[in-house]
Write a structure and sequence with these properties.
The chain is α/β, with parallel strands linked by helices. The protein contains 22 helices and 17 strands. It has a six-stranded mixed beta sheet with strand order 1-2-11-10-8-9. A hairpin with a 2-residue loop joins β1 (about 10) and β2. The longest helix is centred in the middle third of the chain and has 19 residues, at about 345-365.
Length: about 550
């Protein structure tokens, strides 16, 4: 492992990247020097769409607005102040959005200590719990770039019906909605019909790069965040983007690309505990969806804490993130990272976006498309129309039904799955559950990482479909997959649709299974007939794998 203390530091506007030089030196020739020789820093700062090759040029022409979107976003500030005043006592903010429409606002609210309910699920238990919380004081931010996201449309329908059922007129219900979408999207027209407030987003910024657009700023501002501070931090940092030196974004992007090309294509993201909460989840989507295609890519692995298993490995680049941690061993965990990225949140968003675009150049891929994301969506729509498949478990054990794998017990199936993760492989856990009510399911990730000694990711479904789902299908085909589903005890209809939230969730899980099975990768599904008992049973079984 490179010694972070000897790896140098690249800093600008309060943001510092430590260790990048040492990573760059691991390649036969300097990646950074090649990028500078090709004029990449200046071209990227000038929004040159040719940087990723002719096949990517058309997409890049309309996806480089993130480089300076923070300047245009200042025009939103008076509108947001007026909107917050107009909403008055509607101070319980619910964000209905997926992927790029939800991850950045969640990081902003958590980091700055503001209350924001993020609804990025189709689990009926989680949706139902949100609907029962302070409905009379709720404003729902419905955020979708395309305006056709099925999860977000379902949330909108559910809240609209809930307001009407509470006795509001349609005009009164409309006051409880703020719609964020691109100009001309179907959702813009729907918002007008509802009488909802509308804030239009920057159309030249893709979803996962949209942290500093209306998608990130509207829900954050309504939750009480002083979003102008984020724009100030990005603005100050942006002055470094065109430079060949003193450019942290270039240093980070070159290091990410170099590591991937020399066999370290998994990035463990570890919070250093210095004030920024949940940034790894946002970086995960940005990096996985941007680079995981054409059989290559960088796999982010979000690690719970410095002491958690999975932060290191021969094919892992260990990166700590935070607000102000000095380089070296991370307190509490003894982790000595390859890279440390420290600085204010607004600058963090911009440095990772820039670095991801640079890494895409190094890897030779288009960092702005997501060619495999629609596969699971198409499968879901087909299953909703034709009906869910009839499946029979290989066996049942306690509160767990087992589908797939090898063995006659839960322990044997899990052992076979873990032992099958070899070479440069990884294990992805995909939980179609309530990420609050069933939060204990996430404890399986570090346990599996300890049992396998390999990188293990954890994603809540369908949230991860808008994130690592692209990497699963388009990236290196070395993954093994554990899908967890759960019994629905209190389903909810999707108003105006012939299906419920439970059916939609089941169709999304089944559609993703089809997409993965078509790639002939190891796949085990565990269905929990009793969620609490099943989660406890699963955790016990995985703990015993270490014995």
């Amino acid at each position: 492992m490179s010694d972070l203390l000897d790896g140098g530091v690249e800093a600008a506007a309060g943001l510092a990247v430590y260790g990048a030089d040492a990573v760059d030196k691991e390649a036969p020739a300097s990646t950074r020097a090649a990028l500078v020789a090709d004029g990449v820093p200046g071209k990227l700062a000038a929004k040159d769409p040719t940087l990723w090759g002719p096949e990517a040029e058309e997409e890049a022409k309309i996806r480089l607005g993130w480089i300076d979107t923070f300047k245009r976003s200042r025009e939103l500030l008076p509108q947001l102040a007026e909107l917050r005043a107009e909403l008055g006592d509607l101070d319980h903010v619910v964000l209905a959005g997926m992927g790029g429409s939800s991850l950045a606002p969640e990081v902003i609210a958590r980091t700055l200590g503001r209350s924001l309910t993020v609804l990025d699920t189709t689990d009926p238990h989680q949706v139902g719990a949100a609907l029962r919380e302070r409905l009379d004081r709720t404003v729902v931010v419905v955020a979708s770039k395309s305006g056709s996201t099925v999860e977000t449309d379902s949330h909108r329908r559910a809240y609209w019906q809930a307001f009407l059922d509470a006795g509001l007129t349609e005009a009164e219900a409309g006051r409880h909605f703020v719609v964020v979408t691109d100009p001309g999207s179907p959702l813009e027209a729907t918002a007008a019909q509802m009488g909802a407030h509308v804030v239009l987003a920057d159309p030249e910024v893709g979803g996962r790069y949209s942290a500093l657009t209306a998608f990130g700023l509207v829900p954050s501002a309504l939750a009480g965040v002083a979003v102008a501070d984020l724009l100030d931090e990005a603005d100050e940092f942006a002055r470094s983007l065109a430079g060949d030196t003193d450019n942290p974004g270039l240093a980070l992007g070159a290091a990410l690309g170099t590591a991937a090309t020399v066999g370290r294509d998994k990035v463990a993201l570890v919070s250093d505990g210095t004030g920024i909460e949940g940034l790894g989840d946002w970086i995960e989507q940005l990096v996985a969806e941007s680079t995981g295609k054409s059989g290559i890519g960088i796999l982010p692995v979000v690690v719970e804490a410095p002491e958690s298993p999975g932060a290191t490995g021969d094919d892992v680049l260990t990166v700590t993130t935070g607000g102000a941690c000095p380089p070296g061993t991370v307190p509490g965990g003894g982790v000595r990272p390859h890279l440390a990225v420290n600085g204010p949140l607004g600058a963090q968003f911009l440095v990772w976006e820039y670095a991801t675009a640079v890494a895409g150049r190094v890897l030779g891929i288009d960092p702005f498309d997501q060619p495999n994301v629609t596969e699971s969506k198409d499968n879901t729509n087909r299953l909703l129309a034709a009906g869910l498949p009839t499946e029979t478990p290989a066996f049942s054990e306690g509160a767990v039904e087992v589908y797939g794998g090898t063995g006659g017990t839960l322990a044997e199936v899990l052992r076979g799955l873990v032992d099958g993760v070899v070479g440069d492989g990884y294990l992805a856990v995909m939980a179609y559950l309530d990420r609050f009510g069933d939060a204990a399911a996430a404890d399986v990730r570090p346990l599996l990482a300890a049992a396998s000694g390999r990188p293990v990711t954890f994603g809540w479904g369908p949230r991860f479909l808008h994130s690592t789902g692209q990497y699963h299908k388009g990236g290196p085909q070395v993954g093994s997959y554990l899908q967890i589903t759960g019994a629905v005890t209190d389903d909810l209809p999707v108003p105006g649709k012939p299906y419920s939230f439970g059916t939609l969730q089941a169709a999304q899980a089944a559609g993703d299974r089809e997409a993965l099975a078509g790639r002939d990768r190891p796949l085990v599904r565990l269905h929990l007939t009793d969620r609490a008992a099943g989660v406890a049973q699963l955790l016990d079984a995985v703990r015993n794998l270490r014995g």
